[in-house]
Specification:
- The protein has 358 residues and is of the alpha/beta class.
- The chain contains ten helices and 13 strands.
- The strands form three sheets. Strands 4-5-6-3-9-12-13 form a seven-stranded mixed beta sheet, with helices on both faces. The protein has a four-stranded mixed beta sheet with strand order 7-8-10-11, with helices on one face.
- A hairpin with a 2-residue loop joins strand 10 and strand 11.
Length: 358
């Protein structure tokens, strides 16, 4: 009893999970660190996530190992505060959070809903769907968490002569939704890599020019420039937090991490080990990540980069692989198992919210 009272007093005066911890968090580079084994993980069981896409539910799809569920991200310079769905919902009361992007953003959004719902399994909620936008609302706190499918961010229009991607335009539907969110988490990358045969457009409009196709990195940078100008000129940064999540790495080639006998990401059971910060910094990033960092750095408004690329690069073990369906067909080394790596992205997002709202 005495110990409990002592802890409560220390919390009240800011010594335990209070002001000192938040001060340390503000000063810490939370994206430089290593994966450590933690037997208290995962944060929830996938059976608690009634809404979870089966593609991401590796345990239900028959994945026999569980070690990949047991890793926690540990920054070199500090400790992350334990994720608290209750605290997050209180901080976000009467607010609207929106994830915008492709199926990797869907991956993260579903993880986020799992993390919140597992803390309040009996909480009342509603689910609404409208034109590629899905929204959960936790009624007791009036917190809405939505996902908008928008893999390219800029406007894509169906015409009589095909699908046209306009690198210089944001659609009215997207613009209206973005303006009415309190927290925005953007991402775009994987769909810019699609081959000519399965690209999601027939033509690209770049200013006055119409192309059948063009250099994808050039197109990506032009699209992100359009996005950044729109965000700077149309979002009220006094009311809205804006994040851009870094690129999610793929692990299609086991020889890249020294496993010449490996079959892509299949049968990987543990992360790539990094012992110290300089070794971590030497990890290469995909070409698209350099474009994201350059665009965000040039913006005059404070867009926060969720810099998850390098830490996810270490998690060759975290993909569905052969367990992206109950029939074990195909090999998915792009998406992530849930529970799994996207939980850490959301844990870092939570840490960023703590930094922003303190």
């Amino acid at each position: 009893m005495f110990i409990v009272l002592l802890v409560l007093l220390l919390q009240f005066f800011g010594y335990v999970n209070g002001e000192d911890e938040l001060h340390n968090l503000k000063e810490c580079d939370i994206y430089h660190g290593k994966w450590v084994y933690d037997d208290s993980y995962p944060l929830y069981n996938s059976s608690q996530c009634f809404h979870l896409n089966m593609h991401f539910d590796c345990q239900q799809n028959g994945r026999p190992d569980q070690q990949y569920l047991k890793y926690r991200w540990k920054p070199f310079a500090c400790d992350l505060p334990r994720f608290s769905g209750k605290d997050l919902l209180e901080r976000m009361r009467n607010k609207r959070i929106t994830f915008i992007g492709d199926s990797i953003s869907l991956n993260q959004w579903q993880s986020f809903i799992c993390m919140l719902h597992s803390h309040h399994p009996h909480a009342a909620f509603t689910r609404d769907n409208d034109h590629g936008f899905t929204q959960f609302t936790f009624l007791n706190h009036n917190v809405s968490v939505g996902f908008s499918w928008n893999a390219l961010l800029v406007e894509k229009e169906s015409t009589s002569y095909g699908v046209v991607l306009n690198l210089g335009s944001i659609s009215d539907f997207d613009a209206n939704m973005w303006r009415h969110s309190d927290v925005l988490i953007f991402n775009s990358w994987l769909w810019w890599l699609h081959s000519r045969s399965d690209r999601p457009w027939d033509f690209i409009v770049d200013g006055d020019d119409l192309h059948k196709d063009m250099d994808r990195l050039v197109a990506y940078e032009k699209a992100l420039s359009t996005w950044s100008h729109w965000v700077q000129n149309n979002i009220d940064f006094d009311k809205t937090l804006v994040f851009f999540r870094g690129d999610s790495p793929r692990h299609p080639n086991a020889s890249e991490w020294g496993n010449n006998d490996g079959k892509q990401c299949s049968e990987e059971r543990e992360p790539i080990e990094v012992r110290e910060v300089n070794e971590y910094r030497e990890l290469k990033k995909p070409a698209g990540e350099g474009i994201v960092e350059r665009i965000v750095r040039k913006m005059r408004k404070p867009v926060r980069l969720l810099d998850i690329t390098r830490l996810s690069e270490l998690r060759k073990d975290g993909h569905p692989g052969a367990y992206a369906s109950s029939h074990h067909q195909g090999m998915d080394c792009s998406h992530w198992c849930v529970p799994g790596v996207p939980d850490t992205w959301n844990h870092l997002f939570y840490a960023e919210l703590l930094r922003a709202y303190v």
